[in-house]
Amino acid sequence: DTPPPSEPPRLTVIGTGYLGATHAICMAVLGYDVLGVDVDERKIARLASGEVPFFEPGLPELLTKALESGRLRFTTSFEEAGRFGDVHFICVGTPQQPGSDAADLTYVDAAVRSLAPHLDRRALVVGKSTVPVGTAARLSDLLRELAPAGADVELAWNPEFLREGFAVDDTMRPDRLVFGVASAWAEERLYAAFRPILELGTPVVRTDLGTAELVKVAANSFLATKISYINAMAEVCEAVGADIKDLADSLALDDRIGGRFLKPGLGFGGGCLPKDIRAFAHRAEELGVGQAVAFLREVDDINRRRRARTVDLVRELLGGRIFGARIACWGAAFKPNSDDIRDAPALDVARTMHGLGGRVRVYDPAALDNARRAFPELRYGESALDVAEDADVVVLLTEWADFREVSPDALAMVVKHKRVVDGRHALDAAQWREAGWEYRALGRA
Ligand code: NAD
């Protein structure tokens, strides 16, 4: 049961990246007074001036609205954050540690260390970042240790499930909210901090801190497994000349299985799934239950093999030689409707082919600037047709709608050879073949 309404708490959001900026902006639009906090001065300046520093549909309009309402401000000062907030959301990054599968918790630790000394009144600190189970209990101790003597502070965990590309909708209308809490007071504060969303009838799971942390990694592990499952079937299809598209479509029609996350292709990437399954496997090993999730290593391996297999497919279509071939790569972002290139399969494939001597040119509707900055050695172009000029092969790597809309006849006018590798099963194979193209896709004869 929802506890009775109380004064809406004032919120801070610490870490204003993909997750934090979205959370801060949406909460302000929902009527809360929100202070966004980050250590990155440039990011804070851009947000404060009304510019979303990354691509996310719908978010720029909401940022303008939130700033105009006067309910959203940004700062780099933790002192200001401590003074301002009743509920503090921690949304900083938890990337993979270099040279290890473990999550790097430096940033969450730093956020708590910076905030805690400024919490001189009753406050709830809520972790939203994805962390190994056990982190919240440790941070809870750290928070109490570093808060001023006599301060009444508590930690809760509220894992985040938003998807880049749908971040606004996922924040405003989530499938569920998970509240990991250690007291009735923390629960009441979370209800107060999510009231407009709860009033939509959003289901809530109230649980302990550890379970809340686990829900997130369990969900991502399941999704990654579903993708690798269908890609494993694609490997078998290739061995016997069967068709993964028909197989996946047939499985999807079974209500018990469902078609979501059952799309064969180049596999998953991004700043979440790969590092989350690795960190989970690593944490489970630390806890002595590594065997229980050992399959996640296999899920990861299947996923990595897709990238190598895509390069093989391009090589096959080119008659065995990537060296010297002109290769048009469509896509750089790890998925469409995002400019995020963290562990992007598309760029991995493009870089491998570049390393093999291919004359690679990359185009992406949103991620070009990020790609250029991260991989200046690659060549880039300004449109799908531009990079395909004189190409020996076109390789679709991220399933942007823009690529699906390119007409095979229009493309035929600019390329040297009508060869296409569809790394995402995004194109209509029959249409392209009728237009005279050699069409190849993973898991299809
Ligand atoms: P991000 O890299 O885009 O943003 C992290 C932000 O934290 C950066 O702006 C960085 O400057 C800031 N930061 C780092 N240290 C700080 C500190 N000590 N104090 C204040 N700010 C600090 O990362 P993200 O994609 O937003 O992910 C954040 C967390 O949310 C991760 O744990 C991630 O796994 C999780 N998550 C992300 C998504 C997503 O779709 N991106 C979805 C669900 C969960």
UniProtKB/TrEMBL annotation:
<protein>
    <recommendedName>
        <fullName>UDP-glucose 6-dehydrogenase</fullName>
        <ecNumber>1.1.1.22</ecNumber>
    </recommendedName>
</protein>
<keyword id="KW-0520">NAD</keyword>
<dbReference type="InterPro" id="IPR036220">
    <property type="entry name" value="UDP-Glc/GDP-Man_DH_C_sf"/>
</dbReference>
<feature type="domain" description="UDP-glucose/GDP-mannose dehydrogenase C-terminal">
    <location>
        <begin position="328"/>
        <end position="429"/>
    </location>
</feature>
<dbReference type="Pfam" id="PF03721">
    <property type="entry name" value="UDPG_MGDP_dh_N"/>
</dbReference>
<dbReference type="InterPro" id="IPR036291">
    <property type="entry name" value="NAD(P)-bd_dom_sf"/>
</dbReference>
<comment type="similarity">
    <text>Belongs to the UDP-glucose/GDP-mannose dehydrogenase family.</text>
</comment>
<dbReference type="InterPro" id="IPR017476">
    <property type="entry name" value="UDP-Glc/GDP-Man"/>
</dbReference>
<comment type="pathway">
    <text>Nucleotide-sugar biosynthesis; UDP-alpha-D-glucuronate biosynthesis; UDP-alpha-D-glucuronate from UDP-alpha-D-glucose: step 1/1.</text>
</comment>
<dbReference type="InterPro" id="IPR008927">
    <property type="entry name" value="6-PGluconate_DH-like_C_sf"/>
</dbReference>
<dbReference type="InterPro" id="IPR001732">
    <property type="entry name" value="UDP-Glc/GDP-Man_DH_N"/>
</dbReference>
<dbReference type="InterPro" id="IPR028357">
    <property type="entry name" value="UDPglc_DH_bac"/>
</dbReference>
<keyword id="KW-0560">Oxidoreductase</keyword>
<dbReference type="Pfam" id="PF00984">
    <property type="entry name" value="UDPG_MGDP_dh"/>
</dbReference>
<dbReference type="InterPro" id="IPR014027">
    <property type="entry name" value="UDP-Glc/GDP-Man_DH_C"/>
</dbReference>
<dbReference type="InterPro" id="IPR014026">
    <property type="entry name" value="UDP-Glc/GDP-Man_DH_dimer"/>
</dbReference>
<dbReference type="Pfam" id="PF03720">
    <property type="entry name" value="UDPG_MGDP_dh_C"/>
</dbReference>
